[in-house]
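Blinded run. Sample ID left blank on purpose so nobody reads anything into the name before looking at the predicted structure. Input follows.
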Amino acid sequence: MDFNDIQSAWNNDKSDHVILPTHLQKLQSANMPLDKIRKNLKNELVYQIFSILFLGFIPMICNFSPFLRTAYYGLFMLFLVICGYFLIKLYWFYKRLNKVEANTKDNLYDTYFDIRLNMELYKSFTYSLVPFVLVFVGMIFLNNYSIDELTALVHEKSADFFVGLLIGIFVGIILCIATVTEWWVNNFYGKYAKEIRSVLDELKEE
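Blinded prediction complete.
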């Protein structure tokens, strides 16, 4: 929009639709955090796919028994369905981000809230996988013992200690996943969302 267009819009008393140069500069400053989020999300999708493929080879890597292998892949199929649902949602979000143009405040507002919503979606995705991770870890542990060894272990006097240790390990895994998830989301997405929010706050003040 050149100076004549701005002057004409001003004279027609429709200044609400005019994007002044200061607005343009601030809107353009939101493009850098948007680019960072796009890049991180693209890498995220690749990492997630490779992680899922790696988990599919766990029974072969750990040389699972036929019974455990069957149980593992039965659970793994459900795991794939959940992962597929969330990854498709994240992919659609990535496609929307690629079409975003931070040229108006309304567009930037919509994009900001879309980012915040998908950050929560990402957390939900991660936390929904915690039970699967615990079971997979349990299967890897059980694979190192025969049925007779496990039965003897349960009937030993140290069984209570063993069960307590196992519960402690599971609780530790849950806390570790929660901590890493919060850090990951805030570090790779949250801080850039805050930058976009700062731009919106500056535009609101004018």
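Unblinding after everyone has recorded impressions. The CA atoms of residues 14 and 177 lie 52 Å apart.
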